[in-house]
User: Fold these one by one.
Assistant:
Number 1:
Amino acid sequence: MGIWSSVIIRKARSRTTRLKTFFSRGHSPTARSDDRQGSMSPSLDFDSCLFEAVAAASEAGDEIKAAWFVERDVEYKGECDLVTATDKKCEDLIFRRLQAAFPEHDFVGEESVAAANGVLPTIGDAPTWFVDPLDGTTNFVHGYPFSCVSIGLTVHKIPVLGVVLNPITGETFAAVQGRGATLNGERISVSSVTDLNKSLVATEIGVGRDAETVDAIMSRVRVCVETCRSLRASGSCAMNMCGVAAGRLDAFFEIGFGGPWDCVGAAVIVREAGGLVMDPHGGAFQITGRRVLCGNPQVATKLAKVLAAVPDGPLEPHAPAR
Ligand code: MG
Ligand code: MG
């Protein structure tokens, strides 16, 4: 047996061990989902979906980890919007695995949409997978360890399953609607902070650099600095949302991120951890809206009132009519 065969088999074994550990802790493959999505789609096997999503995220995570200190071949989707060969390779391998397991499902990936000139396909009622193979590409390029694989599943356009995996910190967040949320197999829940002035909030600076968008972002930063304990901007929408689910952050918001692949999986994780997911101005969260606010219920509700007073920039996605 050559050295490469040995390496490949060892990697496969370690991944299998990780998956066995993951499912033995909090996501038993024999547990049944009793949520209403299950009754809406009686043929959907959430156990298989979760298993395959974790396995696909682990495979992609291994690729990201292997490239972490060597990958520097950067392309530009926009002035500040980076993409690497690793993003594309990871999307391909995630799609290959999920499409083999669920050939009847629909698939939407960040890099596939980018390759179609940014045109998002029509999202239907069928089970639909949303994949961000590498959320936090700028962090990846700079070696800042706040990047992840983000996988989400919707049924009837409603997020029902999420897996977010940071290969550098070794953290896997996961949730199925109705079953709670976990971090590496252990249950997690949102924080219990109630006062805005005691809350730690995160947002993102995004990739828009026109003056009006920058002004709108800075106005939101200002109101947060004035009303919250402090503000963070670490470079990954999905990781920030999982930070809320784990109680590390009390709220997170972003307007104008890339697409539903950034937030569909994490939205399930936040909700199953006891948090709210909504529009930053307080309306209903829409998976294709490119706008999100999540947090523990008290802080999220209070922060939405503060943010609703700040006008969106003209080039930002606007709040849905209420
Ligand atoms: Mg992303
Ligand atoms: Mg990405």
Number 2:
Amino acid sequence: MNRYTVDLTNCDREPIHLLGAIQPIGFLIALTLDWIVARASANIGEFLPGADGDLIGRPISEIFLAETIHSLRNRLAALRGTNAVDKIFDTQLTRGGAPFDIAIHRSSGQIVIESQPSVTRHGDATSMVRSMISRLDAVDEASAFYSEGARQVRALTGFDRVMVYRFAEDGSGEVVAETCKPGIGSFKGLRYPASDIPVQARALYKRNLLRVICDVDAVPVAIHPQRDEKGELLDLSHSILRSVSPIHIEYLKNMGVKASMSISIIVDGELWGLFACHHYAAKSPTFETRSVCELFSQVYSLRLESRERKEVMEYERRARDISDQLLGAVATNEQLLNDPEWLATILTDVIPAEGVGVWINGNYAFWGVTPSTEQFARIVRALNSAAATRVFATDEIASLLPEATEFADSAAGMMAIPISRSPRDYVILFRRELVRSVRWAGDPHKPVEYGPNGPRLTPRESFAEWQQLVKGHSQPFTAPELRVAETLRATLIEVVLRLASEASAQRD
Ligand code: BLA
């Protein structure tokens, strides 16, 4: 097996698709394009009595039944040069042998066949997914949609805990829904830093939608030979049995988890999140259950995508209504603009914030949790020197004004909406530091012995790491919120200009 030295400092560089080993629940054979055995996992003899290391160089027709090879050839032809995986269930590989489930795909110029003994089948996979989906369609709220997804995956697979883990733009993530067996505590609402699921893993999970770790204590089985005649390692990106990163195994062990599975949720071509599943005993979902899970998460992803589009459209429509309301109200009562409470109620209805400050002609007014007058004046000066003529938003005011760390506990992020032609007058929405609004739900685990990398590889330490990383940051402002703020800016400028021209007309 290849030995890479991985530790907490170089996780992003661990080549998790080239570890040269599989999990012992099945075996792997890689064939040349003329169906000669080029590689085999060291455990093949346990599954195919009589087959062992000297398979290399032999035609597969000497080992598998002719009709099985025929089906495999047809499946491979249908995959037409892609890396996609196809599966055949409940098939004999050798005469008189037990039935196997088989997965086939192309990789590194070879044909990869992975197999596992078949177990009793569940029934019709399509109707199973159909009934799972119809339950999803019955729910309304986003949070209920997440919980229902977790419930469905748990009902299908029987994992002790199933979570919906949602990624933020910076790669960190949050457990947004969870369903679990009683008495194992909860991770719901918790956040973790991007490094817990490093960059290359997130990239792989966009291409390969599902991975299982059947037993964290199982010894990985090496594939021989590791390198082909060109010196290349077998790319296991699409392998079903791929053995996973030892760092991640340590994470699971430190958590007391014995088996894990995760399924990608892809929205608009990006990794939106994962169904993350834990089990406290070894667990090996069948090839068929995995296929149903993949299909379910693909349909789930599409449903989520259309829900999110609809949500953004509805949000933007509501924002236009608010903007009209604002215009109409100020037209009949111009004093309203100097009333921060009124403005705040309207604005925070569409752009959540804990505080609002208004700065017009050197007069300021506040609502909610905001910096002091003097701090506010400094922010306005900094904004003016940055000559912001458009909406400016940051989740870390200190990136614009270093001394803002002093008041980060009351205002860590802000959205500044310039409301006069020259950047001078502003409405500013403030958000509090994010760590203050998220609390650790308690440690659901018994004390465990830590692996060589210590307690960092545990959810609690991850949470602490995440808190460190987001210190001084607020919940970021989103792209739709920025678009809405631009609309509101145009409205506010219009109002301010009209009031100014009315005032000067009165003076003349
Ligand atoms: C993979 N890390 C993962 C996966 C999850 C997590 C879900 C996908 C693999 C799987 O299905 O188990 C993280 N699991 C979590 C989190 C929760 C959870 C956050 O249940 C919260 C409740 N991991 C670290 C650090 C490193 C690291 C510090 O914490 C590296 C320095 C590495 N995690 C790591 C790697 C993988 C991984 C390399 C890829 C595993 C693979 O697919 O080979």
Number 3:
Amino acid sequence: APLKSLVGLPDFQWSARHYMNTSAYTYYRNGAAGEWSYRNNLEVFSRFRMRPRVLRDITNIEASLPTTILGYNFSAPFFISPCARGGYANPDGELGLVKGAAQGNILYMPSLYSSKPMKDIYAARGNGSQQVLFQQVYLDGGMNETQQLFRDIEAAGAKAIILTVDSPGDGIRHRAARYSVGSANSAYSLLTWDLYQELSKMTSLPIIPKGIQTVEDAREAVKQGVKAIFLSNHGGRQLDTSPSSLEVALEIYNEDPEIFKQVEVFADGGVRYGSDVLKLLSLGVKAVGLGRPFMYANIYGAEGVKKAVDILKYEIANDAANLGVADIKKIGPEFVNWKSVNGW
Ligand code: FNR
């Protein structure tokens, strides 16, 4: 489908499904086991109704989109989550993602398992190589390899390390396994908070745990001195029936709302519309990540990624206006009815 015919983020999935070969598309699309978490990530947003306020001055809504993430300036409160194997969608791999992020002035977090080498991705940075990237890592080597990895990441110029903590075991991914494109490390990694502290001493960059799924772990992370936490169930690709980040954000809001003031909170999973972003922000989330929509958009390279950015910005601003929000950074939980429609 021609790029100009796409009008919303789900259109990129439709286009990718027709364009990519089945095994590559399946790798992106797949969720764990019965894919309950995959579906719940998408559907959870519709269980909570907006509470639009009317006759309010919303004329400055667009100007309130830009925000900071760990002190760095971006044009919007959303970012590209780390996803492996960008090469499945485009021979240029992650280059479309890094360039599209630069053109849209949003944050991109390259995956350790990118198709392109880290140095190529960082060499493609825009803004006179000043474009801010946070580098995602898995720890699959010993301490010496990890020390070397951290040195490489610092030398490349990343501004933070995103440490994925939701995957001590493989994701059970039946769909992908049928095409032999599943995850297959089969080694349980013994990552603990003690090790987190050791890792923190090995780098000057902040290490942000990605995959926090309970208020207890959010609290523990704050106690361990993190600068930010990243709520995620890996796009429903790891533990099936794990909660969506909206449910985790709500748990934190209900039981320990101070956490949103103590550290920056990032969240991803199932975000496809402007209103999804607003619901997460309303609880105190600082920035919202999207994985698959940008991976699918990358079939069009940087142009597609930039278009996805523009679509989401447009939707956030419009939805905020219709919601009666004067300043996106000041949206609060009173704009959503947190009694779930289905009583879940
Ligand atoms: C991922 N995700 C992921 N996460 C991570 O920390 N490291 C990684 O290498 C990958 N790889 C990966 C590949 C693909 C194809 C997908 C779809 C996802 C998870 C990703 O960062 C993010 O949490 C989810 O994609 C968010 O859900 P949505 O936006 O895809 O619904």
